[in-house]
């Protein structure tokens, strides 16, 4: 009798921890979806904003898609910069802009960056 109770308790604990695990994974997925560049629609909107700002403020030196040769090296689009490097340099160059504009421009630059 005592043994049955113990087995029951162990089973219950196991079930609970499995449920917990499933929930944790589910939450992680949800967390991912809640990230800034989540849906295609949001991505499209950010890209459009990023492009607009880039054309206004950056294109005279970089052209619309970063293809203009630069005195100090290859065109922006051929520098093979990682997403992190792009985010960092873009934030630096757009210091006074709100975060969502920085993100938009960084995403736009990422979209034309050729990988090494
Ligand atoms: C007056 C001309 C000019 C303007 C305007 C300009 N850039 Fe640049 N940019 C340059 C030059 C020149 C370089 C290359 C510098 C170098 O070799 O380190 C460069 C390099 C970069 C790089 C690459 C840095 C690296 O580590 O290789 C990024 C990213 C960049 N620019 C983003 C921007 C963005 C975003 C804007 C608009 C907000 C902008 N630039 C506006 C001239 C300009």
Order of helices and strands: HHHHH
What can be said about the biggest beta sheet?
none
Taking the alpha carbons of the first and last residues, their distance comes to: 68 Å
Strand content: under 5%
CATH architecture of the largest domain: Orthogonal Bundle
Shape: elongated
Q: Could you say what the CATH topology of the largest domain is called?
A: Cytochrome Bc1 Complex, Chain D, domain 2
- Runs in which pLDDT lies below 50 for 5 or more consecutive residues are none
Helix fraction bin: 55-70%
Q: Give the names of the bound compounds.
A: heme C
Q: Class of the largest domain in CATH?
A: Mainly Alpha
Report the average pLDDT across residues.
84
| Count of all domains | 2
Determine the number of helices (DSSP H or I, runs of at least 4 residues).
5
Quaternary organisation of the protein chains: single chain
Rg, alpha carbons: 24 Å
Structural class: mainly alpha
Query: How many extended strands?
Result: 0
